[in-house]
Amino acid sequence: MVISMMEKTNNHVCVPEDRTQFVLERLQSTLNRAFGNVPFHQRRLREKGIDPSDIQSLNDLERLPFTTRKHLSQNYPYGLFAVPLRDIVRIHTAPGTGANPTVSGYTRQDLRTWETIVATALENSGITPDDILQISLDPGLDTWGRDYQSGAEVLGASVIPNTLLSIEKQLMVMRDYRPSVLVTTPSYARQLAVHLELQQLDPRDFSLEKVILAGEPADSAQRDYLEDKLHIRTWQHFGLSEIPGPALAYECTHRSCLHVNDDHFLPEIINPANGQNLPPGEIGELVLTTLTTRAYPLIRFRTGDMARILETPCDCDCRLIRIGWQTARSDRLICIRGVKVHAGQIRDSIETALGMPPRYYCIFENQYRTKVFLEIWIAVDDAIFSDEIKQLEGSIKNIRNQVHEDTGVPVIVRLKERASIAECQKHLAPSRILP
């Protein structure tokens, strides 16, 4: 049985009053560590006229400044580390908001904590030592594959590690190794379901029983489709590469909500327009503050994910904060097969490939056959026009390779007339339009 860090410390489940004090003490510890060791956080708190000792209740959290992905990129690579590099045992990178990726680090204690977090989420999804897990995540989520592997091994389950394979090879592994659990994104799970149907393969010939959906939200219709086509049950996990990692919130056996592991992360819901906190039940942007992360503490990190805090208790009687995860976002991130990429980073990648900034272009998620892609339309103008077909093909290839290298997601690039792009933009959300 995986026991939460709080219960290991106190040997009992805290009553609400004790728990508030427990969380406050962890918050104060995080603030002291960030203020004393990270110049960025120290400067930001001083600009607000705040000292960590001023935070005397959880209500004071609203006084603290937000941290955004832009701040993470600006402090590339190690500017937000709160411990010396000699104490860092693992370094992760994730797509940033521009040319710089975001870089996060783990101490040995952080890794042990994260193993417990992921193992807890898997256990609450019904995973046992009798299960065999197959992990299939895109290159942009490679680090999540490692985290899921470690968490499953803590439980004593068998693991087929994350490996880049064609869909045919993945199905061969699924047939021959007979995993009972698949950890993947909703997009890839749908791709598997469509492929099985096209190949007239019966999913009941496999041993798959459960699918852990990570990286992106799946609504009830998507989950019903997957469960019907694959003859499995699905569980949803929520995570962030910046916090950093998967499964910081998870569904229990009742599958009615996401339980936030608030022993380690303090959630808030804010109005994305003005930053004001919203009461339970209202939909807004999810903000997270780390409570136990030593190497990479984050204060009021704006996730861009839309959610709401649920007041009604779950039938499992779990005391953790419950949230409902929404499919919409409050920022300019686009989620492709679980990997979140920023419009600004795509712009910088295109500029690197062309040697100049493109003048008119747009980006959106699309599906080609059974695979979800990031599709980029770029206007052909005097700057990149050529009578040579090979030169145009070379430009497309350079852009595709550069964006894929920077984001880790599959990419399609199309050269279009400016009028076509203007027409396309009429039907895109503002976050998808890049003038």
Walkthrough of the structure:
- The protein is 34% helix and 24% strand.
- Residues 1-15 and 429-435 have low confidence and may be disordered.
- It starts with a helix and ends with a strand.
- The strands form four sheets. It has an eleven-stranded mixed sheet. Strands 18-17-16-19 form a four-stranded mixed sheet.
- It folds into two domains: 1-330, ANL, N-terminal domain (Rossmann fold), CATH 3.40.50.12780; 335-434, GMP Synthetase, Chain A, domain 3, CATH 3.30.300.30.
- Helix 2 (16-37) crosses helix 3 (39-47), helix 5 (108-124) packs across helix 6 (142-155) and helix 10 crosses helix 11 (389-407).
- It is globular.
- The protein has 435 residues and is an alpha/beta fold.
- It is built from twelve helices and 19 strands.
List the helices and strands and how they pair.
Elements (H helix, E strand, L loop, with lengths): L4 H6 L5 H22 L1 H9 L21 H6 L15 E5 L7 E5 L1 H17 L7 E4 L6 H14 L2 E3 L6 H11 L3 E4 L1 H13 L11 E4 L6 H11 L2 E8 L4 E6 L7 E3 L4 E6 L13 E7 L10 E10 L11 E8 L3 E4 L2 E4 H12 L6 E8 L2 E9 L9 H19 L3 E6 L1 H8 L7 E2 L1
Parallel strand pairs: 3-4, 3-5, 5-6, 6-7, 17-18
Antiparallel strand pairs: 1-2, 7-8, 8-9, 9-13, 10-11, 11-12, 12-13, 14-15, 16-17, 16-19
Mean pLDDT comes to 88
SS-based class: alpha/beta
* Overall number of strands: 19
Cα distance, first to last residue? 53 Å
Under CATH, the homologous superfamily of the largest domain reads: ANL, N-terminal domain
Q: How many DSSP H or I helices?
A: 12
Principal-axes shape call: globular
Q: Largest beta sheet: what is the strand line-up? A: 4-3-5-6-7-8-9-13-12-11-10
Under CATH at level 1, the class of the largest domain stands as Alpha Beta
Q: In the CATH hierarchy, what is the architecture of the largest domain at level 2?
A: 3-Layer(aba) Sandwich
CATH topology (level 3) name of the largest domain: Rossmann fold
